[in-house]
Amino acid sequence: MELLKSGMPRDEVVTATNTVPAVIDASFSIEQGEMFVVMGLSGSGKSTLVRCLNLMHPPTSGLVRVGGRDLASLSPTELRTLRAEKVSMVFQHFGLFPHRTIIENAAWGLEIRKVPKEERREKAIEALGLVGLSGWEDSYPGELSGGMQQRVGLARALATDADVLLMDEAFSALDPLIRGEMQEQLVSLQQDLQKTIVFITHDLNEAMFLGDRIAIMKAGQVVQIGTTEEILQEPADDYVRSFVQGVDRSRVLTAGAVMEEPVGTILHREGPSAALREMRLRQTGGVLVVDKRKRLVGAATDEDVARIIRSGERSLEKIIPLEDVAKVSPDTLLADCLIPSAESRVPIAVVDDDGRLLGVIPRVTLLSALGGNDANNETEQETGKNLASANASEETEGM
Ligand SMILES: Nc1ncnc2c1ncn2[C@@H]1O[C@H](COP(=O)(O)OP(=O)(O)OP(=O)(O)O)[C@@H](O)[C@H]1O
Ligand SMILES: [Mg+2]
After folding, report:
1. Which CATH architecture best describes the domain 256-370?
2. Is the CB of residue 43 below 6 angstroms from any atom belonging to ligand 1?
3. Ligand 1 centroid from CA 4, angstroms
4. Separation of 9 CA from ligand 1 center, angstroms?
5. Quick check: CB of 44 below 6 Å from ligand 1?
6. What is the whole-number distance in angstroms between the Cα of residue 45 and the centre of ligand 1?
7. Which of the four, 159, 313, 335, 393, has the lowest number of CB atoms within 10 Å?
8. Which regions in the chain score pLDDT beneath 70?
9. CA torsion sign, 248 to 250 to 254 to 256?
10. pLDDT score recorded for residue 141
11. pLDDT the model gives residue 381
């Protein structure tokens, strides 16, 4: 600790003392109900960090507070209770007992707490239902696929009713398809149950799909903590940048994160001439139409409006009806915006549950978000550069 504090790099500390400082300087707090992901390369200290959170590894220095209580101040009995009832761990290799039935495995955390048998059964049945394993209660782990076994591991943690789940590479042993399903299931469970989850992974795609916030570790240190958007838009250093390059943005960025202010919409009662004026002003071929409470009512393209005006109509009744307008919710993944965007002649509308227009995604915004450009500055600079070089080549030609 002294050597580290004096600024000696980790490698040198290892050589000098024959001791690995596995986690150095990791300070953060996790909100109740948050899905907090810790990611980093193998050996970066993720497992050590997560094991510190329930004092399975007591930290050499520093402290861990859960619900305001310093865990170091707990007696051994209190600490056992905390692990059994408040902070539950889900392991990578499932940790199931092969000779026990699924329900016995799921109830294990309750058994060690000496919960009466009937209550144990009830809770385990409920938890197995939550992870989609109803009907498998009396089977044995060997009869289940890897994905199903992992669900049993998750059910075991859920059955304890713990507020905090620590999940160390919980999905890493699963094949990609099942892994994706488990990720989706965890997100929906989390929305229903509002657990606080610390999820460890070395896969940034998984981290970004799951995490409300992500802590990125390098050689024992937390080098960046932020939301998916923050990390994608402003990676803290080259290490983070190298991860970010491999990310499938379409599967981690949401409509809400890239949408733009809904400028250039028109009010339904304004009529076709106003729509045409707006399109000329914005030099676009289509507009979204809203009512005065900002609820989306439809869309109009230049052709629609020209036809309406030619036919002498004064209202926007015969525009693209609401059900045919490309619209998504703020948490729609960009992957699911691609087809609507390609098929639509107006920007995609991002609407809330009441149908109110929150923002728009013009196709160019979607494409630049997927291409990794920060739409607000890089694209402009790029365009500026391209224009400059186009001018330059024109000049050369002229000479
Ligand atoms: N029991 C141990 N004894 C000695 N060194 C250890 C022990 N456990 C971990 N380490 C060292 O601590 C460092 C961090 O290991 P840790 O297991 O926390 O990494 P990790 O990020 O979880 O890696 P992985 O992705 O491979 O699981 C590594 O350098 C490792 O060699
Ligand atoms: Mg690990």
Report:
1. Roll (3.10)
2. yes
3. 18
4. 17
5. yes
6. 6
7. 393
8. 92-94, 372-399
9. positive
10. 93
11. 40
The residue whose CA is least distant from atom 14 of ligand 1 is: 45
Q: What is the C-alpha to C-alpha distance for residues 309 and 311, in angstroms, rounded to an integer? A: 5
CB distance 42 to ligand 1 below 6 Å:
yes
Tokens (6 digits) for 315: 């209202």
Q: Count CB-CB contacts under 10 A for residue 342.
A: 10
Token pair 């160390």 is found at 168
| Ligand 1 within 6 A of CB of 75 | no
CB atoms within 10 A of CB 381: 11
Rg (CA), the chain: 27
Spatial contact of 92 and 146, defined as CB atoms under 8 Å apart:
no
User: Are the CB atoms for 259 and 330 separated by under 8 Å?
Assistant: yes
SS3 state at 163: coil
Chain segment 160-184, per-residue pLDDT in tens: 888 999 999 888 877 788 888 888 8
- In sequence order, what are the residues at sequence separation of 6 or more whose Cβ sits closer than 8 angstroms to the Cβ of residue 98? 140, 141, 142
For residue 304, what is the enclosing H or E element? helix 302-310
Asked, colleague to colleague, whether 2-247 and 256-370 share their fold, the answer is no
Task: Determine which residue's CA is closest to atom 16 belonging to ligand 1.
Answer: 45
Q: Residue 66 and residue 81: Cα distance in Å, rounded?
A: 13
Identify the nearest ligand to the CA of 41 by its number. 1
Long-range contacts (CB closer than 8 Å, 24 or more residues apart) made by 297-306: 297/268, 297/322, 298/268, 298/322, 298/325, 299/324, 299/325, 299/344, 299/346, 299/349, 300/266, 300/272, 300/275, 300/346, 301/345, 301/346, 302/276, 305/272, 305/275, 305/276, 305/279, 306/276
Q: Which residues have CB under 8 Å from 68's CB, separation 6+?
A: none
- Spell out the domain ranges in the chain: 2-247, 256-370
Identify whether the C-beta of residue 249 lies closer than 8 Å to the C-beta of residue 243: no
Task: Express each pLDDT in 73-86 by its tens digit.
Answer: 999 999 988 888 89
